[in-house]
Amino acid sequence: MPPPLLLPLILTLLITSTPTISQDLETECTDQWIYIRQLPSIFNLDLLTNCSQYQTFDNFCPYISNHGLGLKTHNNSHSWFRTDPHMLELIFHRRLLEYPCLTNDPSMASAVYVPYYAGIDALKYLYGQEQNFSFLHGLELYDHIRNVDAPEIWNRHNGHDHFLIMARPAWDFSQPLSNDPPIWGTSFLELQEFYNVTALTFETRAYPFQEMGIPYPTSFHPPNLALFNSWVTRVRRSRRDTLMLFAGGGGISNNPNVRRSIRLECENSTSLRNESYGYSNLCNFVDCSNGVCEHDPIRFMKPMLQASFCLQPPGDTPTRRSTFDAILAGCIPVFFEELSAKLQYGWHLPEAEYEEFSVFIPKEDVVFKGLKIVDVLTSIPRAQVRRMREKVIEMLPRVIYRKHGSSLGMRAKKDAVDIAIEGTLQRIKSRLQEVEVQ
Ligand SMILES: *[C@@H]1O[C@H](CO)[C@@H](O)[C@H](O)[C@H]1NC(C)=O
Ligand SMILES: *[C@@H]1O[C@H](CO)[C@@H](O)[C@H](O)[C@H]1NC(C)=O
Ligand SMILES: *[C@@H]1O[C@H](CO)[C@@H](O)[C@H](O)[C@H]1NC(C)=O
Ligand SMILES: *[C@@H]1O[C@H](CO)[C@@H](O)[C@H](O)[C@H]1NC(C)=O
Ligand SMILES: *[C@@H]1O[C@H](CO)[C@@H](O)[C@H](O)[C@H]1NC(C)=O
Ligand SMILES: *[C@@H]1O[C@H](CO)[C@@H](O)[C@H](O)[C@H]1NC(C)=O
């Protein structure tokens, strides 16, 4: 028996049946049909039963609830959850089940979704007993979809129409096959077997391979338009007394890096309150060391609502969930590396619009040339700051993951899943055209 918290998901999986195809749907769904590969539960639901077994990772059992959204932040909350981004594989799976253009006929599908929980399956290689066998990650799945279950579904386009979600940075899956034992990560994305498959990850490698970046989930998952709109109103009306905010950890060592520069500048500026800029506080440092903010959005969302700019320095890797928390709060993101967002999320945050909704300050200028972030940000005219914030608010719906089963009004707004699906269909279409030309 699976644990009780899995039952709702299993039930939803069972009730997906052939949608009755009306004429309207027929037209609306042209070139958008998706087929979901049938996988035995060892590739998804069974993996959740071991949620308490990875001591060095975390006990992730609480994050599984609500189809991966996690527990509500408090009992009467409808939109706010203690969401762990690693659960996006579940969230996406659940959302795909309500995608209007599902088909049971693989031959009419434009794309084939593989409901494999890649990042959760990776835990045994990353944190568990199989650390020295990470080159095996994915081979069982490949055997299943290539040889066991209806091989013709793969063979039709050599897997070029298949896609899956990997709710971690691609770096965690790109260990060269020859590194044994590995330094870090599995070799899933290095396997030739999966070169043709599109992988949606939180962070892509610097060179474009088979993966594409999609937003980290935040904690906000509105079930209807009224709750969504009231949040947007709050964001727009919020009084922003703080010029800039950094929510995060690190920067405490003496090695020069941008987090350290931010920490120093922030400590300095609290003594430097200068009302003439119209801010009562130039910098707010929300200390999120030791993961204290991860499942506690109140800690950083309230301060973000009160800040004009939110600093997004790279950490262990260039991208951060905080970028999307900031956009959700209407706080203009400040990037220090192109890889932190501009070269990642082309579908959700169009590359050409970065100047309109974000600030870019090269980290070298801050760390080695003494450029002060406060000086850059205070030199931006207030009217321009307001325009940028409006643009951030315009982007907001594109980066949220609305709640599964939400109202029709809410579904009419394209969210992160809708945009990821659109992008995937487009990408697969051009892939197939290229392959056929060759
Ligand atoms: C769960 O963990 C046990 C013990 O480590 C292992 O034998 C089992 O295969 C795991 N189950 C899944 C579905 O990974
Ligand atoms: C929240 O709901 C649970 C279950 O209904 C209850 O046990 C708990 O006391 C409630 N907590 C608060 C703070 O109301
Ligand atoms: C992996 O290999 C290293 C070096 O060969 C060894 O020290 C370590 O104990 C192995 N880890 C596991 C979990 O077997
Ligand atoms: C990937 O596609 C190419 C053709 O584009 C094909 O030659 C190759 O066999 C495919 N790989 C797999 C594992 O199916
Ligand atoms: C801190 O403030 C002093 C005095 O304004 C200034 O000279 C110094 O460069 C500042 N340090 C940092 C790291 O901003
Ligand atoms: C505040 O900043 C302005 C402009 O840089 C400067 O002229 C003024 O002297 C500052 N006031 C204080 C109290 O530091």
Task: Give a verbal description of the structure.
- There is one protein chain.
- This protein has 438 residues and is an alpha/beta fold.
- It folds into two domains: 4-218 and 404-437, no CATH class; 237-398, Rossmann fold (3-Layer(aba) Sandwich), CATH 3.40.50.
- The chain is built from 18 helices and ten strands.
- It has helices at residues 7-15, 23-28, 45-48, 61-64, 88-96, 118-126, 139-148, 151-155, 225-237, 258-270, 298-305, 322-328, 354-357, 363-367, 373-378, 382-399, 408-411, 416-437; strands at residues 34-36, 111-113, 162-169, 198-203, 211-213, 242-248, 281-287, 307-312, 332-335, 359-360.
- Strands 1-2-3-4-5 form a five-stranded parallel beta sheet. Strands 7-6-8-9-10 form a five-stranded parallel beta sheet, sandwiched between helices.
- It is globular and about 65 Å long.
- The model is unreliable at 14-19 (pLDDT under 50).
- The structure holds 2-acetamido-2-deoxy-beta-D-glucopyranose (NAG) (6 copies).
What attributes does this structure have?
single chain, 438 residues, alpha/beta, Rossmann fold, 2 domains, 5-stranded parallel β-sheet, globular
